Every structure is written in C-alpha cells, then in structure tokens.
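dumping this here so i dont lose it
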C-alpha cells in the first residue's frame, strides 16, 4: 500500500526528463509564437508537441480507459477541465512559455497525478537548469537525489517572497497585483522575486530559497505538481483568503510555514478569477 503509485511516479520522472530534452532542443531552433487568451498569453508548437508526447506516453503505459488527463494545451483547445475521482494526470508541458520564447532560462515540465481528487505525486523538471524536482505523498521531496526542505524562517522581515504578474493586463487587476507587491515590499521583506514559471517558483519554496509564493490567476496545471513538492518538503498550501487551498480555484499561497503565509495573506488584494473547472 505504501508503495502505491510508485510505478506511475517513476514513469512520470522519465517522461518529464524526455519532454525536457525535447524543449531544450526546440529552444535551439526558431520558435514560432502564437497567442491564446490575449496578446501576452503565448503558445508555441513545442507546447502542443510536448503535451502530445507526454499524454501519448502515459496512455501507452497505463491505458487510456482508466486514467484521465488534464493538459494545459488540450484545455485551451476546448477540452473540458473536469476533475473527477478517477486517477488523473495534470500536465503543463511547458511552464514558462514566455521564458521559453525569450530564452529566459527557467522553463519547466510539470506532471502531477491525483486519485479521488487528492494529489499523490508531482514531478517538476526545470529543463534548462537540468534539475528534477519530485515528491510522492508520504515519501519526502527531492531535487535530483537530494532531499529538500522548506526554510525555517518565521520572521517575514527575513524572507524572500515570490509572486508573478500573470497575463491579465486589465487596469483593475494590474493595480491590485502591484498594490499587493508594494505592501509586501514595504513590510519590509528582503526581496520580491519571480522566475516566470509557477512550477519552478513552488520548487524554490520547497528547497528553502524562498519563504513563499502566492498568485491569483494561475491554473491547476501550473501548480499541481508543485503542491505535492511543497507539502512533502514541509510547507503548506492555503487559499489567498487564508481558507483551505482548492486546486481548481486559481488562487494559491504556498509557504514554508503558517506564520509567513498568514502575514502575506494580510496584504493580498483579492480579485475575481474564473475557476478552472467552471462550466463555460
Ligand atoms: O507558461 P505557462 O504554462 O502559460 O504558465 C505561466 C502561468 O500561467 C507560468 O507559470
Ligand atoms: Mg504553466
């Protein structure tokens, strides 16, 4: 029982590594860029190709009938984002597409697996850095073969906090995002950072480089794998209002401990986003 999903986990690590190699190679050639929801929400042929490779490999290995798949590019092409109790793979083939397009060197493959809507394991392959972050429920979190742990800092004044700006440039949202960031900077914290990939940001919390990462507007595929990695590294997940974390809500605070999380939550200006599992 304790080794349940071990085979799936180990296969996911292999698939993520192979997918990362495809992304690295594609980055050496000319990248054709298209847009999705708005002018700054970018997608490339590599996103589509890598998602097909990942889902194809998983289907071949574990059968199409029993497992479900939520993939960023499939959903953006109209596949409903339905999260059921069935074994479900949640995949972001290229997290940090904008970074990939610009050659900004933080791009990750994110693969998570959930059963009964509970996340069982997560794999984040930061493929330019060649770092494999992975965690299985109850088995700890690792970067390559080294076990990782969140930072033990409790004093917000000694923290580095991560957040991102997202792709929604409506004046109201941009103003709330920057107002929150200003308030956090003025606490003061040691610094505000953002790698451009939510999956990598969560791994930076998991390995103790940052005390917290929060964002409103991220998607389940950006963070699902990171959620397991942060939890297994000893960190916590909360909603931006301090309530229970909900993977489909597009709102998240991940932190090394509750003291840091609560302090940040006090400053977050919340704005509305449409849930990932909303019926459209
Ligand atoms: O590059 P992607 O997959 O669009 O994801 C972004 C946020 O949505 C970075 O995490
Ligand atoms: Mg993403």
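and the seq i came up w/
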């Amino acid at each position: 029982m304790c080794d349940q999903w071990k085979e799936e986990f180990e296969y996911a690590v292999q698939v993520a590594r192979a997918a990362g190699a495809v992304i690295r190679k594609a980055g050496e050639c000319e990248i054709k860029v298209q847009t999705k929801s708005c002018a700054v929400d970018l997608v490339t042929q590599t996103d589509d190709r890598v998602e097909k490779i990942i889902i194809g490999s998983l289907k071949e290995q574990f059968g199409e009938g029993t497992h479900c798949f939520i993939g960023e590019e499939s959903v953006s092409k109209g596949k409903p984002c339905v999260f059921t109790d069935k074994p479900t793979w949640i995949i972001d083939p290229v997290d940090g597409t904008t970074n990939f397009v610009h050659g900004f060197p933080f791009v990750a493959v994110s693969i998570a697996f959930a059963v009964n809507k509970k996340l069982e394991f997560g794999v984040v392959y930061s493929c330019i850095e060649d770092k494999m972050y992975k965690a299985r429920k109850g088995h700890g979190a690792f970067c390559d073969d080294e076990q990782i742990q969140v930072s033990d800092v409790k004093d917000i004044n000694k923290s580095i906090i991560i957040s991102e700006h997202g792709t929604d440039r409506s004046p109201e949202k941009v103003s709330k995002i920057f107002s929150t960031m200003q308030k956090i900077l003025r606490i003061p914290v040691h610094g505000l950072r953002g790698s451009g990939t939510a999956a990598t940001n969560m791994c930076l919390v998991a390995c103790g480089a940052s005390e917290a990462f929060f964002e409103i507007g991220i998607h389940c595929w950006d963070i699902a794998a990171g959620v397991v990695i942060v939890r297994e590294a000893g960190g916590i997940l909360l909603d931006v209002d301090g309530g229970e974390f909900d993977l489909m809500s597009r709102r998240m605070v991940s932190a090394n401990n509750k003291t840091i999380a609560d302090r940040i939550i006090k400053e977050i200006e919340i704005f509305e986003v449409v849930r990932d599992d909303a019926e459209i």
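The chain has eight helices and 14 strands.
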